[in-house]
Amino acid sequence: MQSILLHLMIQCALWSLMSIGGNTVALSDIHRYTVTDMNWITDGQFVAFFALSQALPGPNGMFLVFIGQQAAGVPGAMVALLAKLLPCSVLTYVGAGWLQRHSETPWVQRVKRSLVPISIGLILAASYILIRSLETSAPSVLLTLASAAVVYFSRINAIWLIIFGTALGLLSAWLGAGWFQA
């Protein structure tokens, strides 16, 4: 158990520091480590934990707490929570004043501009991991792509699509149709 807690603490701290702009940029590495390397959770659990953390109020990286709980119970959840929050909080506290004083220097401007394409690439990798982890049938893929198009091209709040998808899945299960099974 101590080995798991140590691994969890180190990885969550690293992800915390890596996650400029939110944990979504570290999602592919979190998936690789927790699902593939350590086998703490399954693909389905990973997607469910991520979706639940997005639906709950608070920081979107709190799905690490769910992963910690799955890997090592309540101690794992506590270690993940502290390792997620402390490093980035300390860095923010120490760095915010310095960055404010030096924000107009050319090299700080270059670093800020260079983080944009890196973040975009990491978010695209995370999107790929989430879709690959969950979507196993043609109707599921089509529903995901249609939802993404609706969100992108309209002003409809994504919560309505989540409600619609949930209702569609429940209807499928109630009818025994299995529309979204592989």
Keywords:
single chain; 182 residues; mainly alpha; transmembrane helix
Q: What gyration radius follows from the Cα positions, in whole Å?
A: 19 Å
What percent strand?
under 5%
Structural class of the helices, strands and pairings?
Answer: mainly alpha
Instruction: Find the count of extended strands (DSSP E, 2+ residues).
Output: 0
Shape summary: globular
Helix content bin: over 70%
- Number of helical regions: 7
* Overall pLDDT score: 86
Major β-sheet profile: none
| Secondary-structure element string | HHHHHHH
Uncertain runs are none
Instruction: Note the gap between the termini.
Output: 35 Å
Integer count of domains: 2
Transmembrane segments: 44-67, 74-94, 114-131, 138-154, 160-180
Keywords: Cell membrane, Membrane, Transmembrane, Transmembrane helix
Protein name: Chromate transporter
Pfam family, one: Chromate_transp
